Amino acid sequence: MENDNDEYSKELNVAVRVVHMVCSLCQKVQKQLLSSNNSNQIKSKDDDSLVTVADWSVQATVSWMLSEAFGGQNISIVAEEDVQTLSEPESSAQLGMVVSAVNECLAEAPKFGLKGPNEALGASQVLEAINRCNSTGGPVGQHWVLDPVDGTLGFVRGDQYAIALAMIDDGEVAIGVLGCPNYPVRDDSLIKYSQQCPVMSEKSLREEGCVMYTRKGSGKAWMQPLIHSDKRLEWQNSARTIHVSSIDDPALATFCEPVEKTNSNHSFAAGIANTVGLRKLPLRVYSMVKYAAIARGEAEIYMKFARAGYKEKIWDHAAGVLLVQEAGGVVTDAGGTPLDFSRGIYLEGLDRGIVACSGFKLHEKIIEAVYASWESSNL
Ligand SMILES: Nc1ncnc2c1ncn2[C@@H]1O[C@H](COP(=O)(O)O)[C@@H](OP(=O)(O)O)[C@H]1O
Ligand SMILES: [Mg+2]
Prior knowledge:
Elements: H1 9-36, E1 42-44, E2 50-52, H2 53-69, E3 77-79, H3 84-87, H4 92-107, H5 123-131, E4 142-150, H6 152-156, E5 162-169, E6 172-180, H7 189-196, E7 210-215, E8 221-225, H8 235-238, E9 240-242, E10 255-257, H9 266-276, E11 283-284, H10 289-295, E12 301-304, H11 318-326, E13 330-333, E14 354-357, H12 360-374
Parallel strand pairs: 3-4, 10-11, 10-12
Antiparallel strand pairs: 1-2, 4-5, 5-6, 6-7, 7-8, 8-9, 12-14, 13-14
Helix pairs in contact: 1-2, 1-4, 2-4, 2-5, 9-12, 10-11
The structure holds adenosine-3'-5'-diphosphate (A3P) and magnesium ion (MG).
């Protein structure tokens, strides 16, 4: 990072360290999940989507650390999970696991240059930390935005997932931090990874991964490797800048999309790819790791076209969008308008889908193709 006087430098510093902490937590939980086939760690929410011990534990840990660093109870945090399922009597085993995971993680805070609690937190404090993240954001003031485990399906399948933390200031994303515990720091690693081990076993889980981060207006984005065993986070030595790819020839470009066709219309995207002249097969990846791949220059295009009526949430995009933009890329809705993070928990007014590209030329071509194809599509 640049120097300490930059705007949001304290916020960014704390956010990056906290995301490192919870990446480590997630790696442990994912390992346990895969080794013991421990379905006890997974629950269904009322909307039938999945939530795991990791989602709640990350949210509690980040909430506690941010509150500690920035003014107690008064900070505003918008996050995906609530305490409803976890507070039910049938969830007492999960609550116990969450409390242990949170305390184990907080006890490691000094390794990451932060201060944890003097005493272990009890169940009520953990629930309170999760519940405190009940802000709905909005156009005024600072709001932290957290997706504790983005790509929960990828997480439970031993695949890609991300921890996404952003801060919105007066409606604009000011900082973005993305923890990607299964995204190695080596170049070309995502493409190799998805070819070699689309679903990992516990043995193949490699302890590599990275945290990427940026600050609005910096024109830069950075990446740090995760730390392991007893190593401490050494900020200065470990960060390197990342940048989008310079490829602007569609024939050479790689495009990413969600794995699940319920989350994005694969055939519509394939039509766009064909119109624009993309030749490679889509790189299907869970979670905001897709934004990370664009920011790191491993792919050039990310398209997502959710079914009509689905409302995109700010925590699924804020950190990733800023990373791509500051690393040199462009992100808009499918009509070419920038995403609006100022209107509460949803990206209100989003036109059809999301298009993130490494540069303007590719972006323009995709938007034109969407415009031309839309009428004939069934979306
Ligand atoms: N029907 C739907 N259409 C589009 N996106 C959806 C969806 N249902 C869930 N999602 C979002 O897609 C995210 C996963 O992204 P991807 O498909 O790119 O891996 C989910 O994040 P969580 O896993 O955090 O719930 C969720 O927010
Ligand atoms: Mg998500």
